[in-house]
Structure formats: C-alpha cells, structure tokens
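Homework help board

Subject: predicted structure for assignment chain

Our instructor gave us this sequence and asked us to write out the predicted structure in token form, then describe one feature. I got the tokens but I'm not sure how to describe them. Can anyone check?
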Amino acid sequence: MSGTDKTKAALDLAGPVVILVEPQLGENIGMAARAMGNFALPRLRIVNPRDGWPNIAAQRAAAGADHILDGAELFDTVEEAVADCSLLFATTARAHDQAKPVVGPDVAAAEMVGQIKSGGVVGILFGRERAGLLNEEVGLANRIITFPVNPGFASLNLAQAVLLVGYEWFKLSTAGALPFAMPERSEPASQYQIQAFFDNLVRELDKAEFLRPAEKRDTMLVNLRNIFTRMEPTKQDMHTLHGVVMAIGSGQGRRARRRTGHAVAGAARRTRAGHYACRRRQHRPRARPVIAAQPDRCRAHAVAVADTGSPFCRAIQTADAGRASHSGFCLLRAPDRD
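My token output:
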C-alpha cells in the first residue's frame, strides 16, 4: 500500500530491538527493515548475515527505509547480540518443548511496553529463513512468540513475522490511533431544509407520475422520507440533492420540448412532401401512346400482316373471333415521330 506523506514527521518511539539471526537473503533483510519503518522500530541487529554486509539487495528491497539499514549493528553470535536485553522473546512456528511461556504477539506487545517504560531493553529474535531458530537460541529467550496461523501452512516470511510483531507493539504504544479520519462534515440539515427538499422531490415525482397507484401514494412517501432521515443529512447534502432533483426536472422538460419540436417538424416535412408530390403530378407530361389498338374480326388479316414481317405491326389473337363478347383485334405499333 503506497501513500507515504513526506511532509509528516516520523514518530520517534523507544521500541524493542529486532534481531535477525543469520539471515540468508539480502531482500528479506531489506523488507524486514521496511516493516520496521512502518511501525517506528529503528533498532536493527544482524547476526552473521550469509551474504555479508552491507548488501545492495537489502537496500533495494528496503523501499526507503535506508536509515534503518544504515544504523544496523552487526554481531558474530546471538549471545553477543542479546547481551544487554532485560527481556528477550524468540519467535517460532514450532514447539521446541521448552518450559517457558508461549504468547501471541498482542500479549508480547503489552509486556514489551511495560518493560520499556521501566527502562529495560527488549529484544526479539527472528530465525533463519530455512530453519528458524535453533533450540539453543530459543533457550536464551524469556518468552516464545508464536502466531495464530493455519497449522497446515505455518511458515511465515521473515519480513512478515517482523511486521506482525511490530504492528501489535505500535498499536498498543499509540493507543490504536489512526493516521487520519473522515474530514469534518458541514452542519446537520434542519427539519425545514429537509422538508423543503422533500416537497420539491414530491413535486417532480408527481410530474413524472411516479407515485402510482393513488392508494399507495402515502406509503411510498413515508418510505421515501425515511431514506433521507436515516442518513442524517448535512446542509451540504441537502444542497446537493436539491440540485440533483432540479437538474432531473429541467432535463425532462427539455426532452419533452424536443419531442414536441421533432413532431411539429416532422408534420411540416410531410406536408411539404405531399405538396411537392401533388405539383409533380400536375405538371407531369402525358405519355405518348405506344400501342394503338384496332378492333378487327378478321383473323386472316392479322395473320397476313404478321406473315409480311413488317416492323410496324404485331398480331395478337385473344379469343375466338366469331364470339361477340370476345372479338379478335389487331394491335398496330405506332410509327415513331420525326
């Protein structure tokens, strides 16, 4: 989680000493230093780091906690590193079958605070990434700290273990104070403001025909009012909600006016289109007759004309020429005009 405010001063608290026993990876040392910086634990002691010291990987992983790495103290043995401690804790995920109290990080933090207030030096041992603390090293401690974790997967990263203990200690030392809180709100809205807003809301809902059916109107109004009274609105809340209702109402009015305007414009377009179509029909030139029909009861004439192959005529016989109701006729193609 990012978000360090560089303008704020760091807390300077007298806290326990973090002692890393033969850490293997520089990255873990750096991440442990970062966790210490999160919870104002400035004192770091390192016992015989595998990759030597200083370590560039640790500096990269510290993410700004360089002041902790710069002040780290190096020791060759655990005994030397814990020599000045009046209360020593050993962190472990395994039972070492040693007759000494086993506590969680919260209980251990309470003991640390009391010991530090009385002027004592408190140390916390953290073991190797691969194997943890040896029995002999656990034997040096006054208390064992273990964490309530999944017993089927109890191993913690070195930096994670440092963070858990540091969090409990810091929370207790600062009385659980959070770094920031919700900004100050404006004054609570008066009943007059709430009622004015509600009247305006009901007016707009009536325009939209929302409060239907009529027999449920009163119940719906009570439910709506309860929504706003439960939230304990401020004056600013009422101003904002009032503006929202007014914007919605004016938007509906604009949409209605646009719909009316579109309808009028559409009717006008249709009227103009009809007028233009009527004028086109009135001024359309009459079509020149293409085919002239000449009644003829002579079937032979039609055939004879067809036999001539003349381009000026084509014979069509529609029915029996001897019947009065279906007389035969000959169609002649009109000659083209010059």
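Reply (TA_rk): Your tokens look well-formed. For the description, you could write something like this. The first strand starts at residue 17 and ends at 21. That's the kind of observation they're looking for.
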